[in-house]
Amino acid sequence: MNSYSCLDDIGVERVFEEIKQENAKECDWTTYSNLAVAYVKSGHNEKAVLALKKLEEEMGPRNRGAYHYLISLHSRMSNLGEVYRIWNSLKHFLETTNTSYLVMLQSLSKLNDIDGLKKCYEEWKSNCSTYDMRLANNVIVHGSKCLSLEYFVEERDVGGAEEFYKFLKLNCLNSDVYSSLLRTYVAANKTADDMILRIKEDELK
């Protein structure tokens, strides 16, 4: 069944029916996750949603891997409400790990949910027992256009750029951030008299 989903072949339905007829007990949550992946890849989102509902019925409330699949697949279908519903369910039944936060951050990035991304990142920082740089890097590397530094330049959004600068200053500040911040001021026809001092204070060249 995995091979069908990898090939975007809707014939996965036939394989699924064969599995159900030959041994229904083999249909666990992973079976429905493979089915959902095939539907998403082939653009059959309504069928994918039905498969994900069956996945939830089969997975049980404490299956971390299944939660991760659900969050990722719903984000691929732009189902932001479902992403948050499943995330809240995961947090209710299980301790949130670095991996869980990483899955959620990547999903929010795909969905351009800037406020949600920042809130989730801040939540992780306040609760984490071990610091994982992958999560900090994900905010930059996997960020959507709206989170990219160029967005603020294009929008001439000095306020937004300054807020994002403060956000990045905690872990990921580099010279590129200041370059984009300066260009945002120029695009907005505004001045930043303290910029040189700020660069020196942040020890950037």
Automatic annotation (TrEMBL):
Which GO cellular component terms are attached?
mitochondrion
Source domain of life is Eukaryota
Q: What InterPro entries does this protein's entry cite?
A: TPR-like_helical_dom_sf
- Where does the sequence pass through the membrane? none
Recorded family membership:
Belongs to the PPR family. P subfamily.
* PANTHER family referenced in this protein's UniProt entry, alphabetically: OS01G0301000 PROTEIN, OS12G0527900 PROTEIN
Name of protein: Pentatricopeptide repeat-containing protein
Instruction: Look up and give the organism this protein is from.
Output: Anisodus acutangulus
